Amino acid sequence: MEAIRSKFDKEERHSRIANLCKPCHRHVHRTFKERELAIQFNTIDSLLGHPKIKAFVDWIKDKPDDFHPRLSRRKNR
Fold it and tell me: What's the sign of the alpha-carbon dihedral 35, 45, 28, 65?
């Protein structure tokens, strides 16, 4: 991950951290590898631009706050 560290300074890396609900966070990590997140999908806009993330957000947005979808343990990539 040295390439990521050289691309963004420490402050920028920390400011790009997205605060997501637990189901969205889990879905993002099931969809992408850490490197993909760091390089390609490091903003909310870039995440929402991906069809799998957009579809999940559209599906979960009307669910109650305490809703926790059952997600498989396998990563679908």
Answer: positive
Which tokens is 28 given? 């993002």
Asked if residue 20 lies in contact with residue 26, where contact means CB atoms within 8 angstroms, the answer is no
Per-residue pLDDT of the chain (77 residues; tens, 9 = 90+): 566 667 777 787 677 678 888 899 999 999 999 889 888 898 899 999 999 999 999 999 999 888 888 866 655 55
CB neighbours of residue 30 within 10 Å: 16
Confidence (pTM): 0.74
What is the number of H-type helices and E-type strands within the chain? 6, 0
